[in-house]
Amino acid sequence: MVECRQGKRTLERGRISGLSAGMEPMRMIDSDDMLLEQVEQALAMTPEERFRAGGELFDAGCRFALMGIRSNFPGAGEAECLERLRQRLAWADELYEPVRP
């Protein structure tokens, strides 16, 4: 059982105790539930939707990486941030080269 305290409530996997009258307990979602939901969503997609989703995920990852770069290098301009992103992508490419089929 996973348990932690948040205010006066005790959170446990699958239930919350210490709720006020009239509040319904909410089941906590664990990583297995989330993974199963993602797999089900992917299986329901057409190949075109999956292809588009891959590009959208890559774009979102690049936006998050750029936010981190801007945070680490506040004086850097847009061109320098993009160059640092390209370097990180190249390093990732080199890092995972040995594990590609």
Notes on the protein architecture:
The chain is mainly alpha-helical and 101 residues long. The chain has three helices and three strands; from the N terminus they run βββααα. The protein has helices at residues 31-44, 47-72, 78-96, and strands at residues 3-6, 9-12, 15-17. A hairpin with a 2-residue loop joins β2 and β3. α2 crosses α3 (78-96). The longest helix is centred in the middle third of the chain and has 26 residues, at 47-72. It is extended, with a radius of gyration of 21 Å. 0% of the residues are buried.
Give the topology, please.
Blueprint: E1 3-6, E2 9-12, E3 15-17, H1 31-44, H2 47-72, H3 78-96
Antiparallel strand pairs: 1-2, 2-3
Helix pairs in contact: 2-3
Distance between the termini: 40 Å
Uncertain residue ranges: 1-19
How many domains in all?
A: 2
Which percent range describes the beta-strand content?
A: 5-15%
The pLDDT mean sits at: 78
Order of helices and strands: EEEHHH
- As a whole number of angstroms, the C-alpha radius of gyration is 21 Å
Task: Compute the number of helices.
Answer: 3
Number of strands: 3
Q: Name the shape in a single word.
A: extended
What is the topology, as strand order, of the major beta sheet?
1-2-3
Could you give a short account of the major beta sheet? Answer: 3 strands, antiparallel
Structural class computed from helices and strand pairing: mainly alpha
Helix content: 55-70%
Question: Keywords, please?
Answer:
101 residues, mainly alpha, 2 domains, 3 helices, 3 strands, extended, disordered N terminus
